[in-house]
């Protein structure tokens, strides 16, 4: 109600309502303040939401340009600029990236090595620190786990495969003796016989 009063065009007060004029004018002023406060609060929420998203400004739907070209970096800067203030923020430390400062393209969420396509802007030092301390070890471990899961990287593979590897019928003890590798069932029966005194 107050908002509609504040945004409405000024109207002349009828003669019958002239005694109520001292009450109507404060309501119009109060409605104007409420509208201004609402607009300011909405702008703050938009800025906070853009920072909370990590300024995820560009996806893989962008034109295929060389990431090191000036045109691509200019498009990335314009896409990551806050629509309200025009500022560009680092998606790692949340600090402001000033014009002329050293910055680099930074993938948000999933790294590029694992198929990530959402990118933003980060300080060059922040991006290098993140790559060295988190991204590179994480990607390497993920690839090792998948290769082991699908059986692509198992013991005994390669040109220098030993005859006493885990998948071979022979095994070599610590004293150098080479013996036949027992099957899993044989090892289990021997362990039960040792624990419970049963005949293997």
Primary descriptors:
200 residues, mainly alpha, 3 domains, two-stranded antiparallel ribbon, disordered N terminus
Rg value? 34 Å
Report strand order across the widest sheet. Answer: 1-2
N→C terminal distance? 90 Å
Q: Beta-sheet strand percentage? A: 5-15%
Number of domains: 3
Helix- and strand-based class?
mainly alpha
Shape: elongated
Count of runs of 4 or more consecutive helical residues: 5
**Helicity range:** 40-55%
Largest sheet: 2 strands, antiparallel
Secondary-structure element series:
HHHEEHEEH
Uncertain runs: 1-13, 51-56
Q: Look at the structure and give the mean pLDDT.
A: 75
Short description:
This protein is mostly helical. Helix content is about 45%, strand content about 10%.
Fold and architecture overview:
With 200 residues, the protein is mostly helical. The chain folds into 3 domains: 51 residues; 81 residues; 42 residues, no CATH class. The protein is 44% helix and 8% strand. The protein is built from 5 helices and 4 strands. It has a two-stranded antiparallel sheet. The protein has a two-stranded antiparallel sheet with strand order 3-4. 10% of the residues are buried.
